[in-house]
Design goal:
Elements lengths: L7 H5 L3 E5 L2 E5 L8 H7 L8 E4 L3 H11 L5 E5 L3 H17 L5 E5 L3 H4 L6 E4 L6 H10 L3 E4 L7 H14 L3 E3 L10 H10 L6 E7 L20 H5 L9 E5 L10 E3 L20 H11 L9 E10 L21 E8 L4 E5 L10 E6 L4 E4 L4 E2 L1 H4 L30 H12 L7 H20 L3 E4 L9 H4 L15
Parallel strand pairs: 3-4, 3-6, 4-5, 6-7, 7-8, 9-14
Antiparallel strand pairs: 1-2, 1-5, 9-15, 10-11, 12-13, 12-18, 13-14, 15-16, 16-17
């Protein structure tokens, strides 16, 4: 199969699909989709913030687009898949018609077109995971505030780089861990209950996040013409495109796409993501650490021990997959994480012995326990809330800046509202980057332990694995020339 490479200069010269007043044309005019004279007609001191969307797959359609455009107009969309970009552009145009906003927006392949556009104030990122950090950093450097879907980072080092960029630029960054503010406040209530000792002193948290998917060998294939496969790979090692050719899922998150190295299935490859640890783990591990107030930089050392691990492909003694023709993230796992104070996290695919498959179960030393997931908050301590409610400020104390008094707290879309409120007030959003980085460090560290299939000890202060040279080699990865992250 012949590979096609595209230079960085060619990216900037790549075609832009520009829409004005509902009329679409192809443009090769370079960065900045809107002519300045046209764009300036929209701007005034009282205008809502202009939004640029980077990554327009399922998350754009299921959450980001509909909630973000309540707070400001879409200036442009970007996706390396031109079909997805076109669909998103049509959605945005329809929203503008409904809200009687001018339809002046563009669709692009390269995100830098949006960063160069002075009318874009906010960048909403929902690309594949391995692009999150680079785009977020460059957006902040371009003076944009950022809403980024989880996980924001692919490595521990990327989290350090993002925090450095945010400190330098002073931009607002909200992470898309909506469990902190939505789902009828179930997770916030659970965290407040643990902090209020409703299970006494915590003995353990069992965190079930499901296992990664498996697939048969994916044959070599020609990348779809509407997908820029070279650009999609970004910083990651260059690989040949593979696809099952036929759509496997007719319902659910992967519907409409065949098993391949792209679209919804990228997250089952260690090259591009972290499997279930950075998928559901980025939600449920976050809640467990939030409940124990362990998001700080120095909570001591965490001993991470894989008790059971299964991968769909063989890994070498360096933790690297030995096959690139199928999904390679852990499908079954049971990992024990022990903190210096004796608290234990069990991070598992499922827990049939405890009677649940997804969620977080908190258990105290006196065996009181309760379970929280997106559908329920149950257990005797929850029932006891009727007679002994939480203190009035219990939920507010979970946040750096209290969002609980705002209208709609706990409802679908509040997380995005909190972000746009913070864009105006410059306050810390409910899901800040620093706590997300500390939480993801644990998820990344668990993946390191599973890939090496042995115990590792993660130091939360130094953000290293001590003198463990092999484990430390995962802290930062080599990036393809031209796609390096720079701060």
């Amino acid at each position: 199969m012949k590979k096609t490479k595209t230079s960085r200069r060619q990216f900037l010269k790549s075609s832009s699909l520009t829409g004005m007043a509902g009329y679409l044309t192809y443009s090769t005019s370079g960065p900045g989709a809107l002519p300045r004279a046209v764009a300036q007609q929209r701007r005034s001191p009282n205008d809502e913030p202009g939004i640029g969307f980077v990554g327009t797959g399922i998350r754009f359609h299921s959450y980001l687009g509909k909630h973000a455009m309540k707070h400001g107009p879409c200036i442009g969309v970007c996706d390396v898949d031109s079909v997805q970009a076109g669909r998103a552009l049509q959605v945005a145009m329809n929203v503008h018609r409904e809200r009687k906003r001018p339809i002046m927006m563009g669709a692009h392949e390269d995100y830098r077109h949006l960063l160069d556009n002075k009318d874009v104030d906010v960048v909403v990122i929902a690309t594949v995971d391995h692009w999150h950090s680079k785009i977020a950093i460059e957006a902040m450097q371009a003076g944009k505030d950022v809403y980024c879907e989880k996980p924001v980072t692919l490595t521990i080092r990327e989290g350090q780089q993002i925090l450095e960029a945010q400190a330098k630029t002073g931009r607002v960054l909200q992470v898309g861990t909506q469990q902190r503010t939505e789902f009828n406040k179930r997770f916030a209530t659970a965290a407040a209950m643990v902090r209020d000792k409703r299970v006494g002193d915590l003995q353990e948290a069992t965190i079930c996040i499901g296992g990664s998917r498996e697939c048969d060998a994916l044959p070599l294939a020609q990348a779809p013409r509407h997908l820029n496969w070279e650009l999609w790979q970004g910083q990651c090692p260059e690989k040949p495109y593979r696809s099952a050719g036929e759509v496997v899922d007719v319902n659910g998150w992967g519907a409409g796409h065949p098993f391949s190295r792209t679209h919804r299935y990228f997250r089952w490859f260690y090259e591009y993501s972290g499997g279930k640890l950075t998928d559901w783990g980025a939600h449920h591990v976050d809640i467990a650490l939030w409940a124990l107030d362990k998001h700080g930089q120095d909570v001591g050392q965490i001993v991470i021990e894989p008790m059971e691990v299964e991968h769909p492909v063989a890994l070498d003694d360096q933790g690297m997959p030995q096959s690139d023709d199928r999904f390679n993230c852990a499908t079954r796992f049971k990992v024990k994480c022990t903190f210096d104070d004796g608290a234990v996290f069990w991070i598992r695919d499922t827990a049939p012995d405890k009677g649940f498959e997804n969620g977080v179960m908190f258990t105290g030393k006196d065996k009181r326990r309760f379970l929280v997931n997106r559908g329920k908050l149950v257990g005797r301590p929850v029932e006891d809330l009727a007679q002994k409610p939480l203190p009035a400020d219990a939920l507010a104390e979970l946040y750096v800046d209290d969002p609980t008094g705002l209208e709609g707290y706990g409802s679908d879309g509040f997380h995005m509202k909190n972000f746009f409120d913070c864009v105006k007030t410059r306050k810390q959003p409910a899901s800040d980057m620093e706590s997300h980085h500390r939480m993801l460090n644990l998820c990344h560290a668990v993946n390191v332990a599973m890939r090496l299939n042995r115990k590792v000890v993660f130091n939360t202060k130094t953000e290293t694995f001590g003198n463990d040279e092999l484990a430390n080699s995962f802290i930062e990865r080599e990036q393809r020339p031209g796609y390096e992250i720079k701060v």
